[in-house]
Amino acid sequence: MQRAIFALIGFIATALAIAGAILPGLPTVPFVLVALWAFHKSSERLTAMLERIPLLRSALVEAHRFEQRRTIRPAVKFVAVGTAWASVAVTIVGGARPLIIGIVVAAALSASFVMWWYPTESG
Length: 123
Prior knowledge:
Elements (H helix, E strand, L loop, with lengths): L1 H21 L6 H14 L1 H8 L5 H13 L4 H20 L4 H20 L6
């Protein structure tokens, strides 16, 4: 039962990662990290399946780099924070409801905090 729950978490995170690779404002790498963790807990076959998805290839490189070094490259931080706040701007300019704007701002603040919290890879 526990393996099935981890597999379900992995599939949900994979779907969100794929959506993040397509949609601006939705992150990819954090969902890939969750998917890798969940699939690792449930099945090597599912982990291998995740690693064969071409759309997630660059996110997987960053996820593996993060797993090994526990740092984030400066370019990744810049893109993540820039995309998050660009999403806020698009949401406001697009005339979204205040609740949606608040959710997007909260997500941008969270992304900014995470990028600030983890060490930046040097050299």
